Amino acid sequence: MNTRRKRRVLTKPWGAWTISLLLVTGILLAGCSSKEEEEIIRDLVKKGATLAEEQDIKGLMNLTTEDLRVLPGDLGRQETRRILFVAFRHYQDFKVLYPRPGVELKPDKRSASTVFPFLIVKKETILPNLKELYEDPQRWLETVGENADLYRLKLEWVKQEGDWLVKQARLERFTGTSFAE
After folding, report:
1. How many Å apart are CA 5 and CA 65, to the nearest integer?
2. Is 130 strand, coil or helix?
3. 153 touches 170 (CB < 8 A)
4. CA dist 32 → 11, 28, 104, 114 (Å)
5. Cα-Cα end-to-end distance for the chain
6. Mean model confidence pLDDT for the chain
7. Cα–Cα dist 148/143, whole Å
8. Contact criterion met (CB below 8 Å) for 94 and 121
9. Among the listed residues 70, 96, 81, the one whose alpha carbon sits nearest the alpha carbon of residue 156
10. Cα–Cα distance, 89 to 92 (Å, whole number)
């Protein structure tokens, strides 16, 4: 009887240690996957900017949900396509510049949001030092604010069938002191 008791006493620390190890491993893996999800979303923002520069409306729409809403104006997919067509004709050859987007992954890990300033300039326009400021959105904003028309884009993302898609977009113009719709 005594030997049985000793075994139980010996296995309890191992059991607790194993559970602790599994919990720590799970937390670390969840943290890693959150960072990976944030990078995936940032890559999709980059892909969206590239598609815009290429004036690929279909490609941009492939990054959105079927029930996309664009604000202000509460526009759906069809209206958004028309607006993009007109905007692309107006700007012709352009590039989209922006700092590193902030990404907030929601606790459910199935939705996220990004917020970032951006500007559209003629393709030949040169704004020095913007690449160096990519990781510093505040300094990026201060640098370009005096040289171009600034906007801020707020994107709400949902994960559908393993893919991150934009469900809502809100565009705000920089008014000189703040962003406004």
Report:
1. 60
2. coil
3. yes
4. 31, 6, 14, 19
5. 77
6. 79
7. 10
8. yes
9. 70
10. 5
- Measured between alpha carbons, how far is 95 from 101 in angstroms, rounded to an integer? 17
HEC string for 93-107: CEEEECCCCEEEECC
Contacts for 159 with CB less than 8 Å, ≥ 6 apart: 109, 110, 111, 112, 165
* Measured distance CA(112)–CA(131) in Å, rounded: 25
> Contact, 25 vs 19, CB < 8 A?
no
Max Cα distance, the chain (Å): 88
**Rounded distance between C-alpha atoms, residue 37 and residue 27, angstroms:** 15
Residues 31-88: tens digit of each pLDDT? 446 789 999 999 999 999 999 999 999 999 999 999 999 998 899 999 999 999 998 8
Nearest to 104 by CA among 139, 32, 156, 172: 156
